[in-house]
Amino acid sequence: MYDIALSLYAKYQSMFRFAIVGFINTGVDFLTFSVLFSFLGFNKLICQAAGYTMGIVNSFVLNKLWTFEDRKSKLSTANQFARFVAVNMVSLGLSLLGLKFISESYGVNVYVSKLMVTGVAQAVNYIGYRYWVFNKK
Asked: What's the confidence (pLDDT) of residue 137?
């Protein structure tokens, strides 16, 4: 059983690490969102953009150095970061549209809506980071 677990971890190591980094970034995102929305009364879309933005730099560093172990890329760090931001802008756009649509069209609680769109955003991010930013086949 232990060998199977190790084999699965080795095969899906970047996914496991991405999930851990994702939990850290999601915590930062939710904390920022909650403070701005619940305590300071900002608009939910501004809160979403601010929370998402707070995790970008942290996410880049952790994903580059730990998740994908990309220390010898053919791309410059600046180029990778530009690609990383581009992927995040796509997922941010999807999450903003999703948050607005789910919470307003279906009346779903804003926090439940946020959880739902966060899952979609994370899937977009993983695929974009792995195959375009950090070029891991």
From this structure: 60
Q: How open is the CA angle 110-111-113, to the nearest 5 degrees?
A: 65
Q: What is the pLDDT of residue 136?
A: 65
Quote the CA–CA distance of 33 and 25 in Å, as a whole number: 12
Examine the pLDDT at 74 and tell me if it is beyond 90.
no
Q: What is the pTM of this model?
A: 0.73
| Whether the predicted pLDDT of 114 surpasses 80 | yes
Rg over CA atoms, the chain: 16
Per-residue pLDDT at 20: 94
Compute the distance between CA of residue 84 and CA of residue 94 in angstroms, rounded to an integer. Answer: 16
Cα–Cα dist 32/114, whole Å:
13
* Amino acid, single-letter form, for residue 43: N
- 25 close to 58: Cβ distance less than 8 angstroms: yes
Amino acid at 6: L
Rounded CA-CA distance 71/66 in Å is: 9
Give me the amino acid identity at 21. V
Dihedral sign of CA atoms 49, 55, 61, 62 in order:
negative
